[in-house]
Amino acid sequence: MPVEGVPVSGAVVDLEGERVTGLRSSGPASIDLGDVAVVPGLVNAHTHLDLSDFAIPVAPGKSFADWIAAVIRHRTQAGSDPARAVFDGIKEIESTATTLLGDISSASDSRAALESSSLDAVVYREVIGVTRERAEASWRGFELWIKDAALHRRIVSGISPHAPYSTQAWLFGKAETNPACQIHIAETREEIDFIEKREGPIADLLQRLGFTDTSSLANSPSAIVKRFPNAIMVHANHLAPQDFKSNRPAIVHCPATHAHFGRRPFPAKQWLDAGFRLALGTDSRASSANLNLGAHLASLMCGPDALDPATVLRCATLNGARALGLQADHGSIRPGKLANLAVVPIGTREDLEAVIGGLAHPVSVLWRGNWRKSKGLANPA
Ligand SMILES: [Zn+2]
Fold first, then answer.
1. Domain 39-335 has CATH 3.40.50.2300
2. Each residue of 59-84: pLDDT tens digit?
3. What is the pTM of this model?
4. Are 300 and 255 contacting, i.e. CB atoms less than 8 angstroms apart?
5. Which of 5, 156, 211, 367 has the most neighbouring CB atoms within 10 Å?
6. Residue 340's closest CA among 13, 41, 115, 20?
7. On the CB side of 278, how many CA atoms lie within 13 Å of its CA?
């Protein structure tokens, strides 16, 4: 399943080192994988590894602000170990079909741990702050962090102004010129009410946290959207294609998180038909029971807004790679790209829907030309 191009029956994928060098429809092969589908490694375009220490997701609560408050409590509790959470999150993802990750880094820098993992990644350092003092401290932290970018050979360093309700507007301005940028935007109705009218549960939460002056936050989500033609917009549940004028940034949808909060069906088709690159993510274990993107895909093929299986596979691979700016190396099986492949049993059903179902539990994963050694994954060589 090369994603770029039609599926090839009886295919042979040629590899040299960490790259794919050819894709043939017949001929000799040194390893026979049997009755399987070979698909590009999945791209989990949005997660928070440093929140991987939630055994179960935080209950949605009465409001989104309740959920945010519970996550803040978790992060600030005694004994909290975000570096350990990063490690555990990586281990979990290494046992799945995902080979490329977009990670939001806040409580712990994930770059070193990712560098020694069998995952490729873009790490987006979060900048946040309702007050000037906190926003400036966050920016200073980013400036120090980005100085180390060159130390990481495989990991791309980017920025993530957290969200318009939590981050002073000038910090968004600082992120504007960064080519690798993700923003949480318009996730809930509460967020819109707060940004536009400074009322509702988020206003109450900020009051309780002692943030009485919110005048330096944005006043509309579209003001943010207009300034970032190339940033990844995460969630966008309360935006529509027309809010973006001529910009067509990547939109990241997180199906498991969406279901966890019981939100109305995400209009994936509407975004795709309007020309947006729709990518997929797991978000964190604070709102998703696991980080296995392959297990979150089936829901996109059901309901009134169901996507066809080929589109779902494209969203989970090539669109994610494009969103992260790494499509030259990732997202499809093509000569020249990295040999990041997931192997899925097809049994008696050879239809693409069954292949996508199988991505929840791949039998083997090849990462940069090597079989990944991880719990539950076989080494066919
Ligand atoms: Zn998120």
1. no
2. 998 999 999 999 999 988 888 899 99
3. 0.97
4. yes
5. 367
6. 41
7. 25
